[in-house]
Amino acid sequence: MAVDLDHDPLVVDLAHRTAEFVRTVVVPEEERYGGVSAVGGEPMRLRLQAAARDAGVFAPHVGTEWGGHGLDMRDRALVFEEAGWSLFGPLALNIAAPDEGNMHMLEAIASPGQKERYLRPLAAGESRSCFAMTEPAPGAGSDPAALTTRAVKVPGGWRIDGHKWFITGADGAAFAICMARTSGQPGDRGGATMFLVDAENPGMKIIRHIETLDEALFGGHCEVVFDECVVPDDAVLGEVDEGFRYAQVRLGPARMTHCMRWLGIARRAQRIAVERAAERRLFGSRLGELGMVQAMIADSEIDIAASRGLILRACVDLDRGGSGAQSTAIAKTFTAEAVWRVVDRSLQICGSLGVSGDVLLGRFLREVRPFRVYDGPSETHRWAIAKRVVGQQVRTMKEDA
Ligand SMILES: Cc1cc2nc3c(=O)[nH]c(=O)nc-3n(C[C@H](O)[C@H](O)[C@H](O)COP(=O)(O)OP(=O)(O)OC[C@H]3O[C@@H](n4cnc5c(N)ncnc54)[C@H](O)[C@@H]3O)c2cc1C
């Protein structure tokens, strides 16, 4: 497959301006709050987003009718990586998870009325959202078909009952996109529906903030209960029983945008390590002239370049209307592990400085580790990648027989 590596000059310019904005405006705020979003809170989010709007770099992903730049996936790769240079860069541009993935899905699936009510304020940064799919065992996790949350038809609407956890950004979100089973049994591959649930709905309750390794994503990760949560018929997003199909609309691109953002942090970590390696003198030479450190620096360069290439390849698949199931799984698995390796090597090169709070490498390490679990754990993706390859071979053998 031929892949055009060139970008429109306007997109290149947007990426440059994003890089400049993140380095000069966002990084100082990130350092001030140690990369923990709850410390800066809502005033920080509003301040950063206002500054991004003034700099003309806000909401690059949504269409112009929603106040954005309408970038396709390939162009997003360029700009999101620059935004990801800081833990708070995506928040500033309004392209952080889970809002960015939710905007993508609302743009693709929502009715005109739902777009006005939910997408417009979300794209403008006037509201936040969350995506409620995962459940405590034995419910949905790596295997979404295990979904136990149920929605039953009541006059004029639906009643949702279920238990979700690890719902990023739920605290303070204006609404949740909740995945619930409308037919079939846990274990069935179909029968799920997505519902738009307003935060004011008394049937949706946040019962706790889960303490986690990572603390940069806004609104934390929450445990949420849907208890006799009644929503009107027009709360259905798309069609009834099509939720698993729509989840793919969100998950493939959302996997890639996570990779793009975390690649930015990997580059930042590598920059910190390279600056240190160029300055620090040990055993009569620069640190960066010692072979084992050179190897770490080179391996990180290779990890960064290979991740970028795989992301680009998957984005081309998505832009051409493909499902990208295989290419996004490959890119996600590789990038999540590569980003971890790069940050870990960078910390090692910096020695005790790397472990200290004087640089943010320890914070970066905590932030990137969960990426090997969410958006599909590495093992789930490897299993699915191999299943597709072997399945294809079995089909070929049957055709040849
Ligand atoms: C920081 C964070 C934020 C999150 N945000 C959200 C959110 O906003 N909304 C939401 O709905 N969910 C969210 N999640 C949940 C996330 O999507 C799930 O954690 C993920 O799908 C894995 O499900 P699980 O945790 O139930 O693990 P399980 O399904 O219990 O899997 C446990 C382990 O089993 C192994 N495994 C899985 N599949 C296979 C296989 N095929 N073969 C061999 N081994 C396998 C893997 O090592 C995996 O880590 C978040 C999670 C984290 C950590």
From TrEMBL:
Protein name, entry field: Acyl-CoA dehydrogenase family protein
One GO location term (cellular component): cytoplasm
Cofactor: FAD
Domain of life: Bacteria
Keyword Flavoprotein (UniProt): yes
Species assigned in the record: Streptomyces chartreusis
Positions of the Acyl-CoA dehydrogenase/oxidase N-terminal domain: 16-126
Known partners and oligomeric status: Homodimer.
Record-annotated Acyl-CoA dehydrogenase/oxidase C-terminal domain positions: 241-389
Family the UniProt entry places it in: Belongs to the acyl-CoA dehydrogenase family.
Keyword annotations: FAD, Flavoprotein, Oxidoreductase
Stored Gene3D superfamilies: Acyl-CoA dehydrogenase/oxidase, N-terminal domain, Butyryl-CoA Dehydrogenase, subunit A, domain 2, Butyryl-CoA Dehydrogenase, subunit A, domain 3
GO biological process terms, semicolon-separated: fatty acid beta-oxidation using acyl-CoA dehydrogenase
InterPro entries, per the entry: Acyl-CoA_dehydrogenase, Acyl-CoA_DH_CS, Acyl-CoA_Oxase/DH_mid-dom, Acyl-CoA_Oxase/DH_mid-dom_sf, AcylCo_DH-like_C, AcylCo_DH/oxidase_C, AcylCoA_DH/ox_N, AcylCoA_DH/ox_N_sf
GO terms of molecular function: acyl-CoA dehydrogenase activity; flavin adenine dinucleotide binding
Record-linked SUPFAM superfamilies: Acyl-CoA dehydrogenase C-terminal domain-like, Acyl-CoA dehydrogenase NM domain-like
Sequence ranges assigned to domain Acyl-CoA oxidase/dehydrogenase middle in this UniProt record: 130-229
